[in-house]
Design a protein that fits this description.
The protein has one domain: Protein Transport Mog1p, Chain A. With 225 residues, it is α+β, with helices and mostly antiparallel strands. The protein is globular and about 50 Å long. The protein is built from 8 helices and 11 strands.
Length: 225
């Protein structure tokens, strides 16, 4: 009976502790978040908005899922003065728990009929004195070859999908906070993958350098993170 009572007490204590530790404060409410369209300029560093070409829209089913998952998305095409183009896509979720994987290129692109020609590889981009860890992959649909560079923000830090993403979420949860998330994706239509990734790097550098420190932190986290 004593053992049973002790076991029951331990279970009750664990349940109460779990409730007490349940994250209740949204990081987005504490920090305040401007809309993505207000953060990302329409022209910067030789790049300007190109409204003649729009990024490939998702299927209706996927769009409904994105609308349910994300609080805000932004999709734009930019053209450089030299004539080359890149597509920028950002997806923001106030609660990154809520299916951030939906917009992950490795999932999103095959869902729209693309094949992954080259699996995800890690890389880095140096910009504004910060080392930005990115992921790169190559997709294709028919004659369209589309190299992709992306990174994921969880709260105020860049992380990777999977275990690192879950661990970052747990760390915020221990502090009683629910982290938000931003997925930043840059891609282009180019049969030369190496050239495309160099173009992505230049675009990312130009974009980040054009932002104020506060806006840059929204996409990279604090410079000392």
């Amino acid at each position: 009976m004593l053992r049973a009572a002790l076991a029951a007490g331990a279970m009750c204590a664990a349940a109460l502790l779990a409730v007490a530790m349940e994250p209740r404060t949204y990081l987005a409410d504490v920090a305040g978040r401007e809309r993505l369209a207000e953060i990302v300029p329409k022209s910067f560093g030789g790049w300007s908005l190109d409204t003649s070409i729009l990024p490939l829209p998702p299927s209706p089913d996927l769009q409904r899922l994105l609308d349910e998952t994300y609080d805000e998305t932004l999709a734009r095409t930019y053209r450089h003065a030299d004539g080359r183009r890149v597509m920028l896509s950002l997806a923001y979720g106030r609660n990154q728990h809520k299916g951030m994987n939906t917009h992950r290129p490795e999932i999103c692109y095959p869902a729209q009929g693309f094949r992954i020609l080259r699996g995800t590889e890690p890389g880095t981009v140096m910009s504004a004195g910060q080392k930005v860890p990115v992921q790169r992959l190559v997709t294709a649909m028919g004659a369209r070859n589309e190299p992709i560079t992306y990174w994921l923000m969880v709260g105020e830090r860049i992380t990777e999908f999977g275990y690192a993403q879950r661990w970052a979420t747990i760390q915020y949860g221990i502090r009683g906070k629910v982290p938000d998330g931003v997925l930043v994706r840059v891609s282009s239509i180019d049969n030369d993958n190496a050239s495309a990734f160099l173009l992505h790097e230049r675009f990312i550098q130009d974009l980040l350098q054009s932002l104020s420190p506060a806006h840059r932190a929204r996409l990279l986290g604090p410079s000392d993170a």
